[in-house]
Design goal:
Layout: H1 2-24, E1 26-30, H2 32-37, H3 43-51, E2 55-59, H4 77-83, H5 85-92, H6 96-100, H7 105-130, E3 134-138, H8 143-155, E4 159-164, E5 170-174, H9 186-193, H10 199-212, E6 237-241, H11 248-251, H12 260-274, E7 277-281, H13 285-288, H14 301-308, H15 310-318, E8 322-325, H16 332-338, E9 341-344, H17 348-354, E10 360-362, E11 375-376, H18 380-392, H19 395-416, E12 418-419, H20 422-433
Parallel strand pairs: 1-2, 1-3, 3-4, 6-7, 6-9, 7-8, 9-10, 10-11
Antiparallel strand pairs: 4-5, 5-12
Helix pairs in contact: 3-20, 4-7, 5-7, 7-8, 9-19, 10-19
Length: 435
């Protein structure tokens, strides 16, 4: 009996010893530039925090370009072409659907496909030289991260993606799809936590969030305090909340629409037939920000495209009941409070409208869509129906949807998202990738 116990004990020690050795050899591949620049994390501090969990950062920047990648890192022409869509759309200032109809499509895609083929060798070399056991990337569509994600999946290596949120103190993450944009785990967390979340707790959280919203915004998401003169507007008000035209959430979340311009054009037509005032609030980042990858200024991209559209220009010349805030004149939240219906593609501002009792119409796919507090118009013919419904219904239903939206918002930011701190990110990486 003692002999058998000894043998069992020795085998257990061997197993545990092997597991401990494996844990001590955990190597996390990241790009220091992206984690520092995109997410504004202090990589040296993140490194220190990860070492406490026996995880060593191996930056892609420390890899030479000489050794060839492992065979598993080789990507097909079709895979590279798919990854080229994101930078090609950014450079062309077009959505994926618009790019497919552009005569310059092949030229710009082949350009980025060639660039990605070269970078795939670099990333593949990183995998071969640095032998990562885990990979952490930003967003999921950004070129270096997208390459690392795909190679990691091919090699069976766990991958996590991180992204900023509407709040400057919270980070979004995903360890399944490796893409945070509209493909994250928010809905799963909602269904897990909904039965254990009280309305009182969600209300208290959201009331505090509403009161401090502007304090928790980055510079590129700030709006002024100026309120629109609602008394001067007759009839219902419909608010369209714009997003950056080539943001990944738009490029890969437009559903059945071709572009934001098509949505604005449709709303302008309905404003005439249904006699409502349309307010188009364009994203402040388009006035002051630069595009990722190309670093080219947005230069009011959506507004430029609106002014280049003949039908939109005609509406703006002839219709007094259209207001376009392209230069960030008005407070976003006062516009939400003053409007009778809110339309967006999939902006997190739509979530902020929902917790204020103004459930949005979503024209695209969204991580918070389809959960009971939004109205989906993912195809053009659905938008008019949803607008008619929202403009004609009673306020009681809004209160029920607000209750659900507040529970989701509390769960999303407090149960799912991370504090934007190196210690929290390190802990999440160590915990999620140790499985």
């Amino acid at each position: 009996m003692k002999k058998n116990v000894f043998r069992f004990s020795r085998k257990l020690k061997e197993r545990l010893g092997g597991r401990i050795r494996n844990r001590s050899q955990r190597r996390l591949l990241i790009s220091k530039g992206l984690f520092g620049g995109w997410l504004n994390l202090r990589v040296d501090l993140l490194r220190s925090e990860l070492l406490k969990h026996r995880v060593t950062i191996v930056p892609t920047e420390e890899c030479s370009r000489m050794p060839p990648p492992r065979p598993e890192a080789t990507l097909s022409s079709e895979e590279l072409r798919q990854l080229a869509l994101y930078p090609a759309c950014i450079e062309s200032e077009l959505t994926v659907q618009e790019l497919s109809q552009s005569p310059e499509r092949e030229q710009v895609i082949q350009k980025w496909q060639g660039f990605l083929a070269q970078e795939a060798n670099v990333i593949g070399s990183s995998f071969a030289q640095l032998a990562p056991t885990e990979v952490a990337i930003v967003q999921g569509y950004e070129t270096l991260g997208a390459l690392a994600r795909l190679i990691a999946i091919k090699q069976g290596i766990p991958v996590m993606a991180f992204e900023n949120t509407a709040l400057n103190n919270r980070l979004l993450w995903d360890d399944h799809s490796g893409i945070t944009t509209n493909r994250n785990l928010a809905a799963n967390y909602y269904w897990r936590e909904i039965d254990h979340t009280s309305s009182q707790k969600a209300d208290e959280y959201c009331e505090k969030l509403i009161a401090t919203t502007k304090l928790n915004k980055t510079e590129q998401h700030q709006s002024p305090s100026t309120k629109i003169d609602v008394e001067a507007i007759s009839g219902p008000i419909v608010l369209f909340l714009g997003q950056v035209y080539t943001d990944s959430s738009i490029l890969f979340g437009l559903a059945g629409w071709i572009s934001p311009i098509q949505i604005i054009r449709s709303l302008l037509r309905m404003s005439v037939s249904k006699k409502f005032t349309l307010i188009v609030k364009l994203h402040p980042k388009e006035g002051i920000g630069n595009a990722p990858i190309t670093e080219k200024p947005y230069n009011n991209m959506t507004y430029r495209k609106m002014m280049a559209d003949e039908e939109i220009r005609e509406h703006l010349r002839n219709e007094a009941q259209v207001i376009v805030d392209h230069d960030n004149r008005f407070d976003t939240y006062s516009l939400i409070d003053s409007s009778d219906a809110v339309v967006t593609i999939n902006s997190q501002a739509g979530l902020e409208a929902a917790i204020r009792g103004n459930p949005p119409i979503l024209c695209g796919s969204s991580f918070y869509g389809g959960l009971g507090f939004t109205h989906e118009a993912t195809m053009p013919h659905l938008l008019e129906t949803q607008l008619d419904y929202l403009l004609g219904r009673s306020a009681e239903r809004n209160e029920e949807e607000k209750r659900v939206a507040r529970k989701f918002t509390y769960i999303f930011f407090e149960k799912y998202c991370l504090p934007k701190e190196e210690k929290a990110v390190a802990s999440c990486i160590a915990r999620r990738m140790a499985r």
